[in-house]
Amino acid sequence: MTDAILTINAGSSSIKFAAYEIATAGLRPLARGHIDDIGDDTTFTAAPADGPAERQPIDASKGAVDHRSALELAVDWLHRHEDGCHVVAVGHRVVHGGPDHAEPVVIDDGTLLRLRKFVPLAPLHQPHNLAGIAAALHAFPDAAQVACFDTAFHRQHPFIADTFGLPRRLYDEGVRRYGFHGLSYEYVSRRLRSVAPMLASGRVIIAHLGNGASVCALRDGRSVASTMGFTALDGLPMGTRCGQLDPGVVLYLLTEKGMSPDEITHLLYHDSGLKGLSGLSNDMRELEASHAPAAREAIDYFVARVRREIAGLAATIGGVDAIVFAGGIGEHAFRVREQILGDMGWLGVDLDRDANARNAQTVSLPDSRVAVLVIPTDEDRMIAEHTAEILGLIHSAADSTRLTD
Ligand SMILES: Nc1ncnc2c1ncn2[C@@H]1O[C@H](COP(=O)(O)OP(=O)(O)O)[C@@H](O)[C@H]1O
Ligand SMILES: CC(=O)OP(=O)(O)O
Ligand SMILES: [Mg+2]
């Protein structure tokens, strides 16, 4: 019987899951799946590595699918498809690890207690991440459970990249910028090292543009600064999140408009960003297909903020050698990429419009001073690598070439 690792990545509106065999040459994908649009027209898609995908809408007649029932579906599917495998570990994406977790950890009761404290700092993710751990503990009681943090990759930032302009005692208490999407940045940065090692050791800006979105500046593969802050609200506008906001707006909503903290939380996390600006949708595909002026304005605002953050981060790291796009929008929305970089000649970017329209790996012209690449991210693979690594099931993922598979 072969040993296997499962991964669970519970996001704001989707759950991704995967299974990997621990083979002598590294991790071999066995199966993966995702449950999308939880709460509304939920769909379930799963496929063994060598077989066709099962894709089906979920029957909502018994009530809308919530994260808990979606997790049960995911865990149940993994259970049915682990046939012939011994599940030795389950790796979980945990969005908030706070100031102390710079590495993944094997979960025990103490870890769970600590991680629960961060629920208010990541309300769209942390409760679902913890529910995923509870579901996996129940379904796979003999397997090790490993938490892999979105924040861990950013824990080496210099003080000025993580502090706010607040009294220092608040920084000391933990009120600071944590940065998120770290598993994605780590994966993309390792992929970059295998496809373009010279670039990877230089000044790199990665734009993770998905339903949640952020930009990260790296030097020699290490995160130096990120647009995300104390919570996953800061920085870029996102599907339903506001992005950077004058804190005076929150005070105004509270004191002048009489909104409650819960109402403000809902507004900033669920009703803002692309959805709030367009009045239409959080989904970039729907906005691109729409002729409504507000849909165009929402895209224009998103693009303007990405441009501003790229330029700002370039200043932070003293220039840029490569810009990399990842995430659903970053990997597929070529018009958005063109709008972001089409006229950034002043920064040294010369976009290859044809390659860009094909979503090619390199989308800059050969003589562009700044290389521009599209590298599909794979948080699940990164979770599996970390899980295997911390349990000593494979050698260091950083030294391996497995990510080039
Ligand atoms: N072909 C495409 N063109 C434009 N946008 C796309 C395309 N495919 C996916 N997207 C956008 O990517 C976003 C979702 O990104 P993704 O990384 O999958 O999100 P999540 O953070 O939930 O993992 C949505 O806004 C979706 O519209
Ligand atoms: C941290 C975050 O925003 O994650 P996601 O993109 O999965 O929503
Ligand atoms: Mg995501």
Automatic annotation (TrEMBL):
Compartments (UniProt record): Cytoplasm
Catalytic residues in the record: D150 (proton donor/acceptor)
Entry binding sites for substrate: R93
PROSITE patterns reported in the protein's UniProt record: ACETATE_KINASE_1, ACETATE_KINASE_2
Annotated site location: Transition state stabilizer: H181, R241
UniProt keyword ATP-binding present: yes
Essential cofactor(s): Mg(2+); Mn(2+)
Binding residue positions for ATP: K16, H208, L209, G210, N211, G212, D283, M284, R285, G328, I329, G330, E331, H332
Catalytic activity reported: acetate + ATP = acetyl phosphate + ADP
Pathways per UniProt: Metabolic intermediate biosynthesis; acetyl-CoA biosynthesis; acetyl-CoA from acetate: step 1/2
Chain positions recorded as Mg(2+) binding sites: N9, E379
Keyword field: ATP-binding, Cytoplasm, Kinase, Magnesium, Metal-binding, Nucleotide-binding, Transferase
Region Disordered, annotated ranges: 41-62
Function summary: Catalyzes the formation of acetyl phosphate from acetate and ATP. Can also catalyze the reverse reaction.
Subunit description: Homodimer.
PANTHER family (alphabetical): ACETATE KINASE
Name of the protein this chain belongs to: Acetate kinase
Source organism of this protein record: Bradyrhizobium denitrificans
The organism's taxonomic lineage, starting at the top: Bacteria, Pseudomonadati, Pseudomonadota, Alphaproteobacteria, Hyphomicrobiales
